[in-house]
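**Protein of interest**
===
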Amino acid sequence: VLNNVPSVNVNIEGQISLRGSQGVQILINGKPSVIASQEGNSLGTITADMIDRVEVITNPSAKYDAEGTSGIINIVIKKEQRRGLNGSVSVNTGAPDAHSIGVSLNRRSEKFNLFSQLGFGVRELPDDRINRNVDLLNNTTILSTGTEYRNETYYNFVLGTDYYINDHNVLTLSGNFAMELEDQPSLTSFAALDASNTLTSEWERTEVTEAKNPKLQFELQYKSDFDGDEDHSLVFSSLGSFFGKDQSSQFFNNTISGENNDAEQTTRTDFKEGVFTFKLDYTRPFSEKWKLESGAQYVLNDVANDFEVNDLVDGTFVNNPGLTNVFEFNQNVLGLYSTGSYEGEKWGVKGGLRLEQTNLNTLLATTNEANEQNYANLFPSVHTSYKFTDKISIQAGYSKRVYRPRMWDLNPFFNIRNNFSIRQGNPNLQPEFTDSYEINSIYILGKASLNFGIYQRYTTDVIERISIFENNVNTVRPENIGKNDITGIEFNAKYSPANWMTLNGDFNYSQFKREGIFESTVFDFDGNQWSSKLMGKLKLPADFELETTGNYRSRVQTVQGTQSDQLFMDLGLRKNIMKGKAVLNLSVRDVFASRVDENLIAQNDFEVYSRRQRGTFIAFGFSYGFGKGEAMQYSGQRRRF
């Protein structure tokens, strides 16, 4: 679904970018959620038929959390408003193995709205990888090829209720429990080559990993409307979530030829994260044109990660102190905001200011290395719009945003899955700040609607992934490197030449200027990138609907190399049956298996090439609605600014 939203891209790892940049904040029903967290793959458990709409906010006002330098994507989940008992059952199957079943129930009465969802599924996520590490000083090469698997069995349960105390007060209480059981087998083949490109040794590295990932979230919300005016309201919400990971891995190196590389390692991970959010929002309209909004938010984030590595030495596993540690992360953010707006018949303006105080503490328990950061920042925002006619309007806006390093950005522990291609964090990483400007124009011309925009983003202390190369080992870690000045244009169009055909086009082009220095190396360069997608929807005979989406993303220069371009197509076919009570869906992702992620890092003393591909995914689904409801369907996207 997100890949079909204008300006939004989801890469092969599931990382989401907006207008070509990451640092996107994902909300579920306007709030942070354990489902949308970076840990695990829970966002994939939300199916298209559960979604009411997707809101893209490229330049949020001061009312929103300042997190997310590229903007906010808000996924709004359906909630039944019709009285009585309504429900839906969905069954899905696919290849590679992806099978799930979900049940959604809702009962609405005068005082209560009870809602629940229950889901179960299994899925297989293969990932084909090729890595080539070349030491240009010694002319030696390490090649690694293999397939990594992430096989999951997951359960999800949601239960909640809205209690309508009276016509002016509503109390909502909900809970969400999910469990992921992971099995991650992989086999990687290694080859060492000398300066003459002659094979000197070969070996295989086998991984056996199992993990349990429990997730728990609860929400309490109280909304009160004053004087019977739903626009004059006070909303208090309390949100708590927990994510855990209990993981154990075994790694076996088996020599095939040449130098003896036999080895055995075990790792253990005990990860726990708790996030608590308290929020108060007050809205006061003074007239039909003037409105004041103010509020406060306090977010507490507490994380602990216990990571242990043991090496087999003379038949006994011995702890590796260089890779073993306990990392503790504690971050508290207090936010206060106020906005005022005027909305006339043709012209509107909204201005606001947000203050956020951040307190961050990290600790490497084994080495007792502590890092403390305390900082306060102001985040102003200004938005204005003018309607020339009912069919032509223009919007402009400015906001200041922040990206605070996550726990995995700061945690220095090594990932030893491929011990020649290692990722680690940087506990000294600083937040990056972005000033965002944009102007958008909207045109409605008969059967066509057009949206054209110009935007500019200026980011300081940019967080980049930097490769450090030693002994043919490529270690990637995040660093703050200078600034980035991006200027871009964006064009979205929708055209319905006939009742049975709808075309959607999206084009985004940006050019950027990077300036920065890291360890005496200057990273000053100019570059550009562009992406485009074209989606066609056709209503066919016998109540069939066909949808095709073509995507292209250009080659782009990075601070140390290049990222290759991508061209791929997705396909979907849907048929309503049983008088609209049921829907059959067929979807094919990456139809021609052309979606390949290639990166090349080329430096004076080393070169690193990496290639990843997941291949074609095929899924077939059936959903049936009962009671007063209908079969759940995706209702399209709604773009908001």
